[in-house]
Design goal:
With 370 residues, the protein is α/β, with parallel strands linked by helices. It is built from ten helices and 19 strands. The strands form six sheets. Strands 3, 4, 5, 6, 8, 13, 14 and 19 form an eight-stranded mixed β-sheet that branches. Strands 7-15-16 form a three-stranded mixed β-sheet. A two-stranded antiparallel ribbon has the order 1-2.
Length: 370
């Protein structure tokens, strides 16, 4: 087992802290965080990691990157143990780690957040380029008390809403449906009897089809239809997702909406409180926490709060799945999520995940430089 070399700046920082303290002192948090960003631990072995179908491409990319980082190359002086993993899509076979928003199929050893998912109401109405529903109206759609698009006119000020019956695709992803139901309930609009049926891992084919001529995936939602899906489905299939109408900005004379885009999801994820025990991290939304902007932005948009985490779960007590988890929770790997079907974690949660998944792995110690 060997830890990759650290950048000189971290070594200098660590050396300075050592010079000011007694022998073998606890590592300062800022040093530990810097090391976690600039290093990874290679453990000999090959693992199998299951992932959601729509995350496969990015997880395969992480596996490919790892194969170049942890390799026993005798031609170099910096030899690492060979550590690799292969990806299995939502398999029921025995795996070393699982990436999933659902409860793990294995008996979890450690569970940490990896990415952000959300429940969204998708729609097909060709005359609408954008569309919003208030929390009350969203509950009404799910309850079955709102049955016509015209009833949603107040949620879309300045927009002509057609007089058209709402038809429902009844199968809804279990977690997406729960996230929206929990959200409307928190807003004082409980769903007492849903027109949707919760389905674990619903097939993409329920919401999409292959065009026989061009081979392109196109929505199968018909005019006037609505469905509830994970946001990753909506992004992957190009489905229109409704925003949440929160009222009017009287000064700007414009509607206030929470949109399930990367900025809106990130803002909501900064309202998560971290609750943890010895081996797992749970996240609980606290709307009283002020939402923070995504990196590179000056202000946060209204947070889209119907969110839930995608977790990384280790399934055996060896160090191999932990080392792989540490590798994919580095900042570079998280950054790649922005170009995928999922949203990345806020930094403070990512660091919590990185710290927990590193349990049992050797902690690199900066050494003095001349």
């Amino acid at each position: 087992m060997k830890v990759s070399r650290l950048v000189a700046s971290i070594a200098i920082l660590g050396s300075a802290s050592l010079a000011l303290t007694a022998c073998d002192p606890p590592m300062p948090p800022e040093v530990a965080a810097a090391i976690a960003e600039q290093s990874y631990t290679c453990v000999e072995g090959n693992a199998t990691v299951s992932s959601p179908e729509l995350m496969n491409d990015i997880v395969v990319g992480w596996a490919d990157s790892l194969s170049y980082s942890c390799i026993d190359d005798s031609a170099t002086t910096d030899v690492e143990p060979t550590m690799t993993f292969q990806v299995a899509s939502e398999t029921t076979a025995t795996v070393d780690a699982e990436i999933s928003e659902y409860p793990a199929l294995c008996t979890p050893i450690q569970t940490v957040p990896l990415a952000v998912e959300a429940g969204v109401l998708v729609y097909m109405e060709s005359d609408l380029s954008s569309f919003s529903v208030s929390p009350k109206s969203l509950a009404g759609i799910m309850n079955g008390t709102i049955t016509n698009w015209k009833q949603l006119g107040a949620d879309n000020p300045g927009t002509s809403i057609p007089d058209l019956p709402i038809t429902i695709v009844p199968q809804a992803d279990s977690l997406a449906l729960k996230s929206l139901t929990d959200y409307t309930t928190a807003q004082g609009n409980p769903v007492t009897s849903s027109v949707f049926t919760a389905v674990d891992h619903p097939s993409l084919d329920l919401y999409s089809a292959m065009d026989e001529v061009g081979g392109y995936r196109v929505p199968t939602l018909q005019e006037g239809q609505m469905a509830i899906v994970p946001n990753s489905y909506a992004v992957a299939l190009g489905l229109y997702a409704a925003s949440i109408y929160l009222g009017m900005d009287k000064e700007a004379e414009s509607p206030i909406v929470a949109t399930p885009d990367l900025a809106g999801l990130y803002a909501a994820s900064t309202q998560w409180k971290v609750e943890k025990d010895a081996n797992s991290i749970n996240l609980k939304l606290d709307p009283s926490i002020e939402a923070q902007p995504a990196p590179g932005f000056d202000s946060a948009p209204p947070p889209y709060q119907a969110i839930y985490p995608v977790n990384y779960v280790t399934c055996n007590s060896s160090l191999l799945p932990n080392a792989i988890g540490r590798f994919i929770l580095r900042l570079d790997s998280q950054g790649a999520l922005g170009a995928s079907n999922y949203a990345q974690l806020p930094e403070y949660i990512r660091i919590e995940s990185l710290t927990m998944i590193s349990k049992g792995l050797p902690t690199p110690k900066p050494t003095a430089t001349e």
